[in-house]
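Quick one: structure tokens for this chain, please?
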Amino acid sequence: MMHARFKHTCVVARNWDSLARFYEEVFGCVRVPPERRLSGSWLERGTGVSGATVSGVHLHLPGYDESGPTLEIFQYARSEEKPPPRANREGFSHIAFEVENVAETMERVLRCGGSTVGELSSAPVAGMGTLTFVYLADPEGNILELQSWK
């Protein structure tokens, strides 16, 4: 069997620096130097994007040491708009963060430029405890799930 290890998830942003600051402020993510400024035929070949030029950063995710997975926030010099977020849209849906207090973290997301997608909800889940969660969106419309288990 092949050995694999999860490395990162990439979010393509309209403004990578602003979106990175949101994740730093709300969730305590930490930048992994250096900032990336990438271009060239190798990038075009690998991404399949003609004239690909990207800039951005990787962020250490909370709850992991420095060797853990990162959130890669990149901005292409030319990007395509996406449709509005929907929790049931096929493909990648959301990024989830387990937090101590969902309501307090939700308020922080909203104060820092995020928006609501769903409403705060809580229910027992058979054999797992009580889940409190909410779907929100970051300032660029990417869906976030905040969750807490008791």
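The chain has a mean pLDDT of 94.
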